[in-house]
Fold this sequence. Notes:
The structure holds two protein chains of two kinds. Chain A is mainly alpha-helical. Chain A is about 70% helix and about 0% strand. Chain A has helices at about 5-15, 25-35, 35-60, 90-125, 130-140, 145-155, 160-170, 175-190, 190-200, 205-240, 250-260, 270-295. In chain A, helix 4 packs across helix 11 (about 250-260), helix 6 runs antiparallel to helix 7 (about 160-170) and helix 11 (about 250-260) runs antiparallel to helix 12 (about 270-295). The relative contact order of chain B is 0.14. Chain B has two domains: about 35-50 and about 80-230, 3-Layer(aba) Sandwich (Rossmann fold); about 245-330, no CATH class. In chain B, strands 6-7-8-3-9-10-12-11 form an eight-stranded mixed sheet, with helices on both faces. In chain B, strand 7 (about 175-180), helix 7 and strand 8 (about 205-210) form a beta-alpha-beta unit. The interface of A and B includes residues 23, 24, 195 and 199 of A.
Amino acid sequence: MSATQIAGRMAGVDAGAPIRQSSLWQDAWRRYVRNRGAVAAGGIFLLIVAWCIVAPLVSTHDPNHVDFANAYQGPSWSHPFGTDQFGRDLFTRAALGGRISIGIGFGATLAILGIGVVYGALSGFVGGKLDNGLMRFLDALYGLPYLPFAILALAIVGTVDFWTMVVALSIASWFITARVVRGQIITLKENDYVRAAKAVGVRWYAILGRHLLPNTLGVLVITIFLELPGVILGEAFLSFLGLGINPPDASWGSMAQDGRDAYRAHPHIIIIPSLAIATLVLCANFIADGLRDALDPRTKET
Amino acid sequence: MALLELSDLRAHFFTREGVVHAVDGVSLAVEAGSTLGLVGESGCGKSVTALSIMRLLPTPPARIVSGGISFDGRDLTKLSERELEDVRGREIGMVFQDPMTALNPTLTIGTQIVEVLQRHLGLDRRRARRRAGELLAEVGIPRAHERLDDYPHRFSGGMRQRVGIAMAIACEPRLVIADEPTTALDVTVQAQVLDLLDDLRRERQMAMLLITHNMGVVAESADDVAVMYAGQIVEQAPAPDLFSRPEHPYTEALLSALPDLDDHEARQSRLTAIPGRPPDLIDPPVACRFAARCPFAERGDCCVLEPPALRELRPGHWVRSAHPTSERHLSHA
C-alpha cells in the first residue's frame, strides 16, 4: 500500500468514513463459508432438496405404478435405487417421500417457531403477572412427552395427511422455542437502547417489532435447524409405527416401514430412506452449528 | 410558574431486602429556557429522579409512591402510558449516560432518528430523512447525510453521544433531561459535548435538567443548581450564589473536596474527602440524613432528632439544614 493510500485511509478514518460496508448478515455469511463442514452440510442439504423437487418431474417411472414382475430389484441403470415389493421405482418414490418428509419438517418447524415466538415474546415483553402465568402454564405442558402426545393427536384425527402431521408434530414441541424467545426478549428488554427508544416516545408495538424481535432473528434461524432434525425424526418414527401419512403417499419413514418385512433379503428398501433421513438430519445439525458460530457475536472479529 | 416542578416526589424500589427510598421527597423547579444542574454523589437518586420524570422507572420493582411531577401544568404522574408516549420525545427529550449502549446496534443511525421524527411530527419518509440529516449536521457530524446509513458501531463514543443529542432534540422538546451526558466520554470530548448541548439549548430556548456528579460541569452550564443527598434535595440556589456562598455543610464539603490546581500548597497535600459514608437508603435516618457526617451536628441537636425542612434562606436560595453557613457564624458569635 502506498503512502498516499495509507494517508487517504487514515483521513477517512478520522472523518469516520465507511471503510467496509458490511451488515451483521454479511459478516455472518463470511464466517459461515469459512466453516468447511457447515458449507459441505449446506451443499448436501440443498442437493437433497433439489433432488426431491426435480427427480419426480423428470423421472420416466410412475412412482405409484405397481409392477410385480419387477419387485425387489436391486439398484440398476433403469432403477438407480432398485424397486420395492410392489415393483415401484424407489428413486422416484424416495424423492417424493423426501418432499413430504422435508415439507412436514419445515412446516412443523415454522409452526413451532410461530407459536413459540408469539407466546415467548408476549410473555417476555409484558412481564409481570402475565409472564408468570404463561410460564407456569408452560411448566405444566412441559411434562407432556411429545411423541405420545403426537400419537394421541394422530389417533384422534384418524386420517393422516400433510397438515394433520404438521399439527401433531408441532403441538407439543414449541415449549423450548417459547422459552428461548422469552429469555431473549427479557435480556434485550433490559438494553439501554430500548429505554432510549421509550424515552423518545416509540410505541410498545414498534419497540417489540423493530427493536426487539429483529435482534432475536439470529437465534430463530439457528432454532430452525435445531428443531428440524427432531421433527423429521419424529415424523419418520410415527410413520415407521404406521401412524404416518396414508398410502399411497409415502414419507421416508413409511418407506422404511415398507422395507421392514424383507430387510434380510432386500435390505436396500429400508436402507435408502433411512440413509436419506440420517444424512438430512446430520446436515441440519451441522448447519445449525455453523450458523451458531457465524451468528454468535462473541466470535465477532474486526 | 416553572416549566417542570417536582413536589415532594418519592420513588421507592420494593426489593427483597426492603424498600429502598431512592428518591424521598424531592422538590425542585426548572424554569422554562433555563438549565438546572442536579448534582450529587453516586447512588443519591439523581438518575431515579430523571427516570421518574420520564415515567420510565422499571416497574416493578420501582414505583412512584407519592408526590407530583407538574410539567407545563400537567401532572405527569396522572397520565396514561398512551399519553406519556406522546410526551416522551415530543415535549421532554432525554440524553443518556452511556452513548455506547443507548443506540440500537442493529438499526442504522438514520432509521433511529427517522423513527422519532415520523412518530411525533408525522413527516413522510423522505422529509424525515432529510430532517435527520440536517439534525446530524447540527450536532456536528461531518458528512451527515451520508452517515445516516451507518450503524452505530461505526461511530465513536463522542459521535454517538452527538447522535443521542440529535434524537433528544429532534422534535424540539421544551425540556431536555441530560443524565450524566459526559460521564462516559473522554475528557477531551466532554467539553465539546457540553458546549454543544448548551448551544442547542440556547438556540431553541429549551429548558434543561443537567444531571451530573461533576461540579465543574455544573459551574460551566447551569443557571441554577440543586444538590442532592441520600434521596433528598439539600440545597438549591442560583449557580453563582451556590458556588460563592454555599449554605449546606454537604455542599461546602463537596466544594472543598474539589482539587485546586492553582494553589501550590494544596497540590502538595492530600485531597480533601468527606468522612463517613452516605446512609443506607433502605433504612434512612429519621432526622437529617447528613447528620452523621456533618461537622456541625452535635449530640442532642435538634437536627439529629427531627428532619430539617427545606427552607428559603434568602430569595432563591433554599437549604435543608439546621446549620447553614450564614446562621452558623451568628450563633457562634
